[in-house]
Amino acid sequence: MRRNLLLAVAVAALVTGTLSVAGPAGAAPAAASAPVADFNGDGYADLAVPAPGGTVAGRDDAGYITVLYGSPGGVDTARPQFISRNSAGVPGDAVDYDAFGRASTTGDFDGDGRTDLAVASDNGPTVVLWGSPTGLRSSVALAAVPHGGPLAAGDVDGDGHTDLVVPTGLVGVEFGPISRKGKSSARTVVPFDDAEDTRYGFVVGDVTGDGADDIVTTHGFEDEGHATRLWKGGRDRTVTRVRQTMTPSLDGVIADFDRDGYGDFATFKYGTSHEDITRRPGTLEIRYGSPAGLSTRTATITQSTPGVPGVDEAGDQFGLSLAAGDVTGDGYPDLAVGVPGEAIGTTAGAGAVVLLRGGPKGPTGSGALAFSQSTAGVPGVSEREDRFGEEVRLADVNANHRADLIVTAPWEDAPETDSGAAWVLRGSKNGPVTRNIATFNPATLKTPQDEAHFGADLPR
């Protein structure tokens, strides 16, 4: 079940999203692809699954990450890698309430051709775990990066090197390549400019089509929600705010849904207050990119949209988690939509995921598919407040050129209270399939279980 819905919202808000498939304006549209984290460089996407509530060496909520490597047969659950502050070579020590893995992101930060993993926590230093032929091995603390904030990765200056977006000031960028000693090539910081500048998350991608990734920041709320903002990246390593009106939102992903050369921003539009997040059915908004930024051309999708399974009901939270990738192999990004508050029958908060098919007009309700633990073939049972779909990702773990759907339920009792669980549904030309689904949790992986909240965040 769940311990606290506010924690669910806070974790979701720290999620970062990045899928840069846009190219320069006028260029031929690139084929859509799923984001890939390949820590050992073998061509198969790997999964890093944080459990920020996990107990480590008797320390409550110390947090840990389990890494599962991709293979021709899909995700390999037989040889998981357990990483915590107490792991050899990881800076810091496991302490109470550190929540190691609270925020994380992936990218080739040192430019060696293998994906690295950046991990933040509530109290300890932010670290980068370096990829190698045998997976994630050595690591370094980033002394200049504050703890406890969101992280994202992208090429903000368009030089071909992956940069790390960090919570220094309002927006900070550590430009790549980053050395194995933790020194970045350069640094840019956008300072806080008023008391409302509480940032909850970063979403990175090239919405202007100029070859340099841009940054979307989502913000917190006090008495009312604060507007989402767009920051333009540049080859001169500047980060400049684009002055345009954007409604408050949480989480999101950038992908070139219509393949016009500009990245489009899909997000959970929540209105003006915290109550809108927890009580409303949920609204997904897509704002399409343009040379000037995110345009006024938008698409709004809810469970009332024709073709979308389900019914708009209070607290469904349709769109609270989002991921983009080409599940069907047709060249257009599809959109996975988490609906963690969805009631399955009379079971409140059991959760579901909806897959919106992509096409020339972007994702629509046509041909949409829904999955829950009550779907035939999906292991498990829909239980109250499991919140299946709290996190979703799309990645090609078996390298068949179709993205696979990764779903987590951090409040699943499996079997310990709120230990959490994850599922991988393979992609196909018809969408995710329910045959041979891989499922795993702390019990099956032999990692700490009780209130671990396994899968409360998934890096991109």
User: In which order are the strands of the major sheet placed?
Assistant: 1-13-14-15-16
Bin the strand percentage: 25-35%
- Which radius of gyration do the C-alpha atoms yield? 20 Å
Helix content range = under 10%
User: What is the CA–CA distance across the termini?
Assistant: 25 Å
Low-confidence stretches: 1-35
Tell me, briefly, the overall form. globular
Mean pLDDT: 90
Number of helices, where a helix is a run of at least 4 consecutive DSSP H or I residues: 3
Task: Provide the structure class.
Answer: mainly beta
Largest sheet: 5 strands, mixed
Number of strand elements: 28
Structure description:
This protein is mostly beta strands. 4% of the residues lie in helices and 31% in strands. Strand 25 and strand 26 (404-409) form a beta hairpin. The radius of gyration is 20 Å and the shape is globular. The model is unreliable at 1-35 (pLDDT under 50).
Give me a quick take on this structure.
With 460 residues, the protein is mainly beta. The protein has helices at 5-13, 274-279, 442-445, and strands spanning 17-18, 47-51, 64-69, 76-83, 103-107, 116-120, 127-129, 139-141, 152-154, 163-166, 171-175, 186-190, 199-205, 214-219, 229-233, 239-242, 249-255, 264-269, 283-290, 293-301, 321-325, 334-339, 352-356, 369-371, 391-395, 404-409, 421-425, 438-440.
